[in-house]
Every structure is written in structure tokens, then in C-alpha cells.
Amino acid sequence: MEADVIVIGGGMAGAIAALRASSLGANVILIRKGHGSSAMSSGTIDIAGPTAFLPLDSWDSLPSIPDRLGEMLRTHALHPYSIVAGGRTGLGQVCYRLRQACDFLLDKVPGLQLDGSTAQNLALPTILGTVKFTAFAPSSLAGGNLREMRDAHVLVVGVRGLMFFQPHVCKQSLERYSSLHAPSSIGRVEVVEADMPRLASAAPATPFEAARSFDDPLTVEKFAQSLANSLPSDATHIAVPPILGLNRHAETYEIISRELRPKIFELISPTFSVPGHRLQVELEAALQRNSVRVVTTDVVDAKRDGRIVRNLVLEDMKSKRTATAKSFIIATGKFSTGGLVANDFPKEPIFKLPLFVGGKRVDNGFVQDLLSWNVDGRQLFLSCGLHIDDSLRPLDTFGEPAYENLFAAGAVIGEYDYVTDKCGMGVAALTGYLVGENAATLAAR
Ligand SMILES: Cc1cc2nc3c(=O)[nH]c(=O)nc-3n(C[C@H](O)[C@H](O)[C@H](O)COP(=O)(O)OP(=O)(O)OC[C@H]3O[C@@H](n4cnc5c(N)ncnc54)[C@H](O)[C@@H]3O)c2cc1C
After folding, report:
1. Which Pfam families does the record match to this protein (predicted)?
2. What is the mean pLDDT of the chain?
3. Who contacts 168 (Cβ-Cβ below 8 Å, separation ≥6)?
4. How far is ligand 1, taken at its centre, from the CA of residue 201, in Å?
């Protein structure tokens, strides 16, 4: 197996890297053993959210995304945003590159139907009635932007027979958030119940099962009719859990939006959510459209010659083979996806690269040292990962690029915590875009 550029990892970082390299004329293979965090996410693109939910006079007093980026550059010198910025004074540079990366994502993966911007966060309600701040979200989620719901009359829809959603909890929490933190946003919240034809008589359905049944236009129409009968005439918005279609979401959302007068939107579900699955499906469709060859297997080792990576060793149940390229990209994610492994010591298993947290090397220490037993404590393992240079090449223990033709993107890079910094997919898209460029340029030399 041979290509100009080989990308390891099929999440947001790997997919954008492969698409960018391919858009520059490189012949690209993407190898991934499965789905990663991108598919488990809420399906939104966080670039730089507020670190704490501070009381606000109105949503307009939220810090802008460039403000938050500026704060990160001042306080986190090793954050991937700071590396791309080239230091504290590079805010303009990182904003410009983020805009480029997001424009590229919107252009190459139009099926995501993203709304939002790199300037200001959307404020989106979750299934728990809390608020998530994020830069971009699919339009069915972005329709719930609380910044645009002043005096709205919102109906939270409880779907009979659906697991994991308590509409009354969502309502109470949403009312509380709105009244405490941004008093001007929502006028009134009510709960209504609706039946889903296919679920009514069956055992409780998971969100994925419910979403799959919404792929049938007949189910959508019946659901819309059952809902239309119980709508108060002054309702302005309808909030539903994120179940409006699994593989035919765009059609489902179009039909249901047409059938119902109030604006219908999906609530954010923090994890293993249907929109995360939709995002992964759209990334893969984009790879296929752009002639990136996707191979599903495990990369278990790499053959290196001095400071050059020569080839990768691939292994699955059936065979062991090698893959050769001029440049390589590691976008394998963190512990949950196998990008990093933790048997006593944390390790990067393919290239055996050193790992860092807070500027200190940690792959020679116990993984327990990265865990806080205090539930409110900062979990260091979340920011464990590779150090990179300004070309996004992983560094060795001496702070030098480990290999001339190896680049890193996404969550395998260390020194940021997507939970606290609210920047998971933003870092993945930005670094993926840049390494795609760097790897393709090197391969073309
Ligand atoms: C539960 C959860 C919810 C989240 N929600 C959000 C959110 O709402 N918004 C947001 O912006 N961020 C969110 N994040 C963070 C965000 O999902 C990640 O930062 C981002 O998806 C990382 O993308 P990635 O491409 O680097 O890694 P991943 O998406 O994890 O992809 C890693 C890929 O590498 C592959 N791989 C690993 N090892 C190998 C190997 N040896 N051989 C071959 N392939 C390999 C995996 O199979 C996978 O395809 C969330 C994270 C989690 C865990």
C-alpha cells in the first residue's frame, strides 16, 4: 500500500487533514481502526467557550471567541492555539487560520449544515436544560440559540417510550438558567408529550433507535401531526431531544420544519449523541467524494530510519502488511480511542513518542499520577499528549522534531483540556487543516 500522504485516524482531525492534503493534489490514504471521540461528541464544533458559566446581564456580555483565544494565548504557552499563533502576540494569526480551517470544513463537508461563526459562541440548551457554548452546530441544534430567543415561548417535547430524556428536568433547569444568568432570554417554558408511532407499543427506545425510526418520512409526518394537535397557539419554539433522523436527518428535519409552525430544534446531548454519529457519517462521505482511500485496520508499529518514517505496520485479524508514504500524519486521539495507551505508564504506541503534561514528561511516570481522586479536580490525563513544533511535528525528548516527515493533529497533541478550554473540535479542525497542508507540501518536494 503506497501513497503521498498517509493519515492515521479517522476523526475530525484525521478527516480534515486527509481532505486538505487531497485538495492540494496529494494522493492520500486514511487508516483508522474505528470511530473515535468525534463520533461520540455532541456534534458541535467548540473553538473557545467560556471556562465557567458566569452570571450574565444578557447573552451579549459573553466574551467573544477572539477574546477567549487571546486569554488562552496569554495563559497557555504550550496550547496548540499558542503554537499556531507563534506566541502571545499571534492572535490575528490563529484567528485567521481558524477561519480558514472552518471555511474549509463548511465547504468540504456541506452535509454537516453548520451554523455559527468564529466570532461569537452560540448558547445552546442541552437535554438537561443546561447551556452549552459552541462556535458551530448543525442547523437543527443551532435553531435553539438562546441568544435569539428573547421572550420565546418554548415547548419541551417529551417523547413517550424514549430513554434518557426527562422533559420536566429539562424545563426546570432551563427556566432556572434563563432567569439566573440571562434574564432576557426565554419568556416561558412548557412540557408537552408526543407519541412516536413506531415506539408507542415497544420497549423503551434508545436515542439511536428513535432516530433510526425517524428516517421513515411516514413516522415524521405522524409525529408532527400528533405534536401539532397539542401545541398552544402562541408557542414560538419546539425543543426535542436529538433524534430527528439518523442517516436521513436533513430530509427529516426539512419535513418536520415544514409541518410545524413554531421553529423546531434539537437539544444538545453531551455524549454518544446521534448528532455525533451524523458528523462522523458526513466526514466519511466527504472523504469518499474527495477520493481519499479509507482503510479500516490497526496501525501497530512504524519502521523508522534515523529521522525519517519509512512505513507503517498494519495488523488486523486476517493479515499483517505495510503501508509506505512520503509523509505521515498521526491523528489517533487520546486514551479512549487508542491513540494513547495506559498500562501502568502512558504511552503513544505507534511511534513511541514522548508524552507531556504542563511542560513535564509523563510517559516515564505512572498513569495514576495523571488522575485526580477529587471529582472537582483537574484531570491531567485530559491534557496528556505530544509536544509539537510550529510545523506541527511531534517533538522528541530533546525538544527537536522526532521525524522530518511526521506531523500530528487533534487530540493526540497535549497541553490542552477540551473539557475546560471548550476547544475540542476547534483544535482538531485547525491542526488537521494545517498538517494536511504541511504533509502535502513535503510530499510534493
Ligand atoms: C464524550 C465526548 C464528547 C465530546 N463532545 C465534544 C463536543 O461536543 N464538541 C467539541 O468540540 N468537542 C467535543 N469533544 C472533544 C472532541 O470530540 C475531540 O477533541 C475530537 O473529536 C478529537 O478528534 P480527533 O480526530 O483528534 O480524535 P478522534 O475523533 O478520537 O479520532 C481518533 C481516530 O484514530 C483512530 N486510531 C487510534 N489509534 C489507532 C491505530 N493504532 N490505528 C488506526 N487508527 C487508530 C481511531 O479509531 C479514530 O478513528 C468530546 C469528547 C468526548 C470524549
Report:
1. FAD_binding_2
2. 93
3. 158, 191
4. 36
The string of pLDDT tens digits covering residues 70-104 is 999 999 999 999 999 998 899 999 999 999 999 99
Query: In whole angstroms, what is the distance from residue 379 CA to residue 386 CA?
Result: 17
Q: Contact 438/392 with Cβ under 8 angstroms? A: yes
What is the Cα–Cα distance from 284 to 290, expressed in whole angstroms? Answer: 10
Class of domain 127-269: alpha beta
Atom of ligand 1 nearest to the CA of 14: 25
**Where along the chain do its domains lie?**
2-45+278-444, 127-269
- Per the CB < 8 A criterion, the answer to whether 276 and 38 are in contact is yes
Name the residue of 37, 112, 136, 383 to mutate for ligand 1: max ligand atoms within 8 A of Cβ: 37
For the domain made up of 2-45+278-444, give the CATH fold: FAD/NAD(P)-binding domain (3.50.50)
What is the mean predicted confidence (pLDDT) over 12-36? 97
| Ligand 1, CB within 6 Å, residue ranges | 8-14, 31-38, 40-42, 44-46, 271, 298-299, 331-333, 336-339, 350, 410-411, 418, 424-425, 428
pLDDT digits (tens, 9 = 90+) for 52-61: 666 666 777 7
